[in-house]
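EI: anyone free to look at a 619-residue chain?
SC: sure, send it
EI:
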Amino acid sequence: MSREARFAKVKSMGLCYNCLRPNHLVDECKYGTCRKCKRKHHTLLHSEGDSFDRGSGSSNAANANPIASLQAVVALRVLLATASVRMFNDRGEPVKCRVLLDNGSQSNFVTEKLSGILNLTKREANIPVSGFNQSLTHIKHSIATTLQSRDGRFAAELLFLVVPRITETLPAQTINRCDLNLPRNITLADPEFCTLSEIDALIGAELFYQLLCVSQIKLGNALILQKTRLSWIASGAIHDRGPASNRIACDLVVDSLDAQVAKFWEIEEVSSVRRLSDDERACEQHFSQTHSRDESGRYIVRLPFNSRKRELGDSYQTAKKRLYSLERRLARDPQLREEYTDFLDEYERLGHMTEIPVSDVAEEGYFIPHHLVFKRDSHTTKLRVVFNASSKSSTGVSLNNVLFAGPTLQEDLFSIVTRFRTHRYVLRADIEEMYRQVKLSEDERRRFPLACRILLEDFYMDDALTGASKLDQARELRDELIGLLTCGGFHLRKWCSNEPSLLEPLLDQSLDPHICLSESETQKTLGIHWHPREDHLIHVVKPFTEHQRTTKRTMLSQVASLFDPLGLVGPVIVKAKIMLQRLWEDKLDWDESVPVDIATSWSKYREQVELLNNFIVPR
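SC: here you go
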């Protein structure tokens, strides 16, 4: 069947041109691209006349590829210098990786993928990096490791900035090695330089010129073999017999900072009613058809896998390395180790985990790495264990990637907190160990009419903010909520109220141990600070950090830290946003010092904004 016939067949069947699957458009397809030209169509639909689209600039970075791609009809291809080296992980073991040598870069870079494999301690960084066409990315972490040549004769300690990706596979197209007439008596730094392969790191000018040696060999008019301390590297132009369309690696593209700031402004917009997407409907249908309940009433659900399940790779090695790293941290902190041990004991006692031999794990099993968040000054939960289902497997796909996300079930935060202000008697609680959203069956709706409405409208994830206008209604609501959630195996805890009599019947362990109506204590819940005894709301502002220079970046960072879900201090925040708007009108760069008049106004604002800590509003 010809290519045109295959194309017509796919179109008549309503299939995606990229993956040949139904029920979605090619622009929505999450599968790979054509293996020959990297465009969004299936390899079976490829035509030799296809060429690459022009790459989008930073303003369209949300849809951009990790490198800038453009159509260049030329009679040569440029080979970039690459080398195969070793880097050492947290246990001192060598890891083979492929690096790009770039004397035009002031810094060294490493991909997040390789950083995860090395499992080295990440250092906090705050470094803006600009690239081609003034594109700007902000680096948050760095790692330090040893780079060593394959023969072990050269080694250097280097600092690497961690980025999601450096470039696409290099070279841009597979090269026929036989056409290059390479000398047989030399050892190449990258024996596979002709084959498409990923780049794990980039070595900049800091080390580049230290690597160069005296010898150089010219192959033809443009391709050069250069001797280095990593062995010989190949770089330069390769002449073709005819014109070809190549992609050219020239830029690291990230989400535009301007696009990220747009979200900061849009977050306060009133959301419109949205319809469920196809994936969200599929997720709800999966839950309706597969969930069940055990003898105690607990809900049993199945993981909502999407069509990418087969792409999930091995995650055992990553999880094991994270565990080794965690054990080293625990060995240095006895208090943290004790808290972590208590967590594991409780997890096992509650039946949330069971031990299984590694040999019993199915091939499609997934090991979820975890890490600890420890807050010594926390009054409630000091230790929080975070399970990272977004950790990439060996194929670059995570468990979250192969699961339906599902629709948002809870109401918006503004509505919940606003209703909280309308009740005379209020209750606050959260669900202990709640990891799943629950859909109520019809019989439970009849048994618990009040609690049913509250569960759907006044819960934000596992936190409840609710109440009633009469005391007897509040008591009935409290009892119904406890009864309804107990049916599903959920326990309400950390109760708090502005009315002491609502808390008297509850067991001591169900009350919040860190709040007492007779004391001057403030509760933080869903972003607001509430004083139960006085029954008023206060606004808490942390002191703004004083920077050596005032820039657009530092101002935005501090304004974004002002969280006001009810809009009570809206006029104060708007004043800061007006100053930010002025910076956009003046087209200042992110790290450029702001004009003197704005810097003066910002200094006064920074001093006065802490007065909001004295701002009290009746609930």
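EI: The chain is about 25% helix and 20% strand.
SC: 👍
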